[in-house]
Amino acid sequence: MNLFAAILLSVNFLTNHPITGQANMSVLIQNLKTGEVIDSYRPDHMVPPASVMKLLTTGAALEILGADYRFPTVLEYSGTIENGILDGNLYIHGSCDPSLGWKGQTAFLNKWVNAVKKAGIKRIEGSIVADMTMLDGDAQNPSWLCEDAGNYYAPGVFGINYYGNTMRISLQSGEPGSTATVISTDPKVEDVYFINRIRCDKINHDGAFVSGLPYSRERYLSGSVPSNLGSFTVKGDLPNPGLLLARHFTSRLREAGVTVKGDALYEADYNPLTPPRTALYTHYSEPLSEIIKETNVNSNNLYAEALFRYFGTKYSLPGTIHNSQDLLRDYWRRRGVSIQNAIIKDGCGLAPQDAVSAKAFVQLLTIMSKSKNRDAWLASLPVSGQTGTLKTLCPDTPLAGRIHAKSGTISGTKNFAGYIDMPNGETWVFAILISSAPGKARNIQTVIQQYLLDVCGENR
Q: What is the end-to-end Cα distance of the chain in Å, rounded?
């Protein structure tokens, strides 16, 4: 079969399939080296990218900040230190680092305690204060759906992020028709208040949800879980991760024999007239290369949104969502990506208003393939049939291990964008964006998988 006939077969497969035929679709596959179009269908058409949006965010972060960049979190103090007494407050000045306390790893707090003791401080007359003022008060992106607010996959983003901004809520399931009982949270959050409406029903799946707003102590638990399940866990967001970090740090200091007189506090409102403070110790995050790897391989929304929100601080303080949107759009526009008609509301793809074309993603991926950060970029992408969100794409097929790409999934939407290493040594760059399709996302993926196998098989 000649190349022209193969393209017709591929396009017809998508446009005539009962699942994808009436969907909102944009497709482009090119030879990375020559730019030859392998297959194309409405490449300029705007489609909700879902988590493929993370490519815009992580690519810009790599290019602007560099693979070795580390987010600083600075311990600062006000007042004076005399005779072992700090007559003032000790501040935790955050800079949007998403990785503090990730997966409950809090050993870094011991280093902070040692830094305080090394400075000769034995008593703090004031408080440990979480300074989250690098960002404005819009911790929750206003373009996200209300039903997502409070869920673990849509946590608020703050100047200080901690524990993945996530808490695990342990519950006990009982008889059918009863209400599940809240047992505890991890981490323990002292002042959170649960309105619990989780029903125990005769079902075989977990249908529990957590909702709430940033800074609010109230969390609403709804939905249903299997009856007589015993203990189980649901995940929700942390209302105020900075305050929790300040409390944990206060406890560690007291356990180490450093007296802290006041209760832990937090600051959320930026004040350009804040008196100067003295830096005591700087904590650095893991390298950006590792942060974007977590972002893309596991499709981590907190990590992506923290990077996105940090962009806004490059225009002004405090960083705003509007400035983040402008920077991301302006950056890729200057690099030659067709982004002028795209809709950019966030950095992770949760906003249903987001809309980007397949052509824009192919252009971005082409640029990143020639970047000095190329190795870190490629290492951040999941591999088909092997890692992350691509583990279920093309396993046990000729394309297993040959696709490095980002996926995006929401109801009725399944998207992929990345690179295909062909058996003949060529590399293809592609974006397949399919939205508003009937049925479940896994069924759309099945169609896309067959499409990719057909295209690659006909053009080997």
A: 11
